[in-house]
Amino acid sequence: MLTRWGETLDKQQVLQEYPRPQLVRESFYNLNGLWDYAIKPVGAMEPKTMDGKILVPFAVESSLSGVQKGLTEKDELWYRRTFSVPAAWKGSNVLLNFGAVDWKADVFVNDILVGSHTGGFTPFSLDITPYLKAKGDQKLVVRVFDGTDKGYQPRGKQVLNPNGIWYTPVSGIWQTVWLENMPDAYIRRIKCRPSVENRSVFVEAVCENADGRTLRAAAKFGGKVVGTAETRVSGKSATLEVKLDELHLWNVGDGKLYDLDFELEGGDFVHSYFGMRKVEWKNNRTYINGKVVYQRLILDQGFYPDGIYTAPTEGELIADIKRSMDMGFNGARLHQKVFEPLFLYHCDRLGYIVWGEHANWGLNIARPEAWRGFLPEWREVLERDYNHPAIIGWCPLNETQKDQDRDLIRELADMTRSFDPDRIYIDASGWTHQDAVSDIFDVHDYDQNPETFRARYLPLEQGETITVFNLGKHVGKPPFVSEFGGIWWNPAHPEGGWGYGNRPQSEEEFIARYRGLVTALLENRAISAFCYTQLTDVEQEVNGLYTYDRHPKFPPEVIRAINTQVAAVEKEQ
């Protein structure tokens, strides 16, 4: 299926936006576009003759790729193209960047293996300077293996045989590929920790070849410099505090952002940004900057009919956020996919709160092979996304079974909190929680009867313990109904598709059920967060508030009126 955006896509100008808004350089050579591709058996040599053209960065299974073929555990996907280094970059180092490649990638420049990366959701960069020819075209080859559900890799909802709540796989390059020229000394990564109390932002920078050099930072708001700091790099790291003359708080629906510019002695200039906000969850309430915020969230899985994981345009990333907000949601649980940095940037600027999650569902975490792939990639997720103010909490696991390795679950929590002590943490969304690990008692409850749904959570108002299905007892931690609803609605195909529970027989019945479920949570004085399943249909799953190609199933204003009712916890402020 091609959407109305995919039909008008310019293959010569596909996704040309700078893809890494937290670490921006002016030098930028986008490698998106038509590459040669071939699918060959595992272990085969680089093919002399390729199978055809593929449009990067769309997965090989997608219609926008121009291929629409799948891989098995017996296949490898080969990419090949040439490029020329811009003449203005002569004498500079050249970095080759990949936003994400699913799953294992080997990269060759001029027939030399220059690096590898394992993990389908996180970026990697390679300094290819030593492998470049002095002049002429440079040959770039990428080899990808992706066994999907035939191995022990984080994959989310991807399966080789999609059905029910399982979807089409994503293999190969699915985010932007680009080059940038670098001085010998450069900034590799920054970590910005805002402190509302101190009216400052603490910065940790990782630098290359910069020992003893001066690093300068300047914070701006509305184009005005409101804070500066500088320090010397020691080894590969530098730490500084930027005191702010003006305090502008980032809030829900009001994403105030500071610009943050860096200059490293030797010629590296980098642009970033940050938001000033403090997140807490206490007394069964969500607080941002000391004020109660009811989390009215939607489950968003980030699938597109023609690009699968990859939106056809940046505009569609923005549009999905606005579609959610038009229906009265103020955020999303980003489900079983590590969303691209550009999406998170637009969440930041629009004040749209989200939960960061790893794509672990279907992964048997009781096996050590699974953990060997999961833990390093989760660390890369934290490093990539830490600076986004829109992310208010982390939830690395989803619906884990009772046979999970309890020690590893605690290790995962310790690792996450040591890297980020300031956000809320859920060990595993739904099903099995471990005492003293999760900050939240969250549940998945697809009861379609508003009355029994309401009655189940009423004891929480009196501070009583409840048991939710097989989930165990609520033990006094703040409750979060992080999946509910999922009401089946597909009037174009009344007997087709998949959804939760019994199908409503009319639009009026759907709206009545939706109103009953949402109102039951809003009126409960112990609950300050919910997440409805889901924003859009995904393939055969038809429980979205929008169709797969983003048409509203119901007037947005009707859903908005239900969602924006004043909640009990809001009345008590």
Number of helices: 8
Overall pLDDT score: 93
The strands making up the biggest β-sheet line up spatially as: 28-26-25-24-23-32-31-30
Largest sheet: 8 strands, parallel
Tell me the radius of gyration.
24 Å
Helix-and-strand structural type: alpha/beta
Total number of strands: 32
What does this structure look like?
By secondary structure, this protein is α/β, with parallel strands linked by helices. It has three domains: 6-182, Galactose-binding domain-like (Jelly Rolls, Sandwich), CATH 2.60.120.260; 186-274, Immunoglobulin-like (Sandwich); 279-571, Glycosidases (TIM Barrel, Alpha-Beta Barrel). Helix content is 16%, strand content 31%. It is built from eight helices and 32 strands. The chain has helices spanning 314-326, 341-350, 368-385, 406-419, 450-457, 507-522, 556-563, 568-571; strands spanning 29-30, 33-41, 52-56, 75-83, 93-98, 101-102, 104-109, 112-118, 124-127, 138-145, 172-173, 177-182, 186-195, 200-208, 214-221, 224-232, 237-243, 258-264, 268-274, 279-282, 285-288, 291-292, 295-300, 331-334, 353-357, 391-395, 397-398, 424-425, 428-429, 441-445, 479-485, 529-533. An eight-stranded parallel beta sheet has the order 28-26-25-24-23-32-31-30, covered by helices on one side. A hairpin with a 4-residue loop joins strand 13 and strand 14. Helix 1 crosses helix 2, helix 3 (368-385) runs parallel beside helix 4 (406-419) and helix 5 (450-457) packs parallel to helix 6 (507-522). The longest helix is centred in the middle third of the chain and has 18 residues, at 368-385.
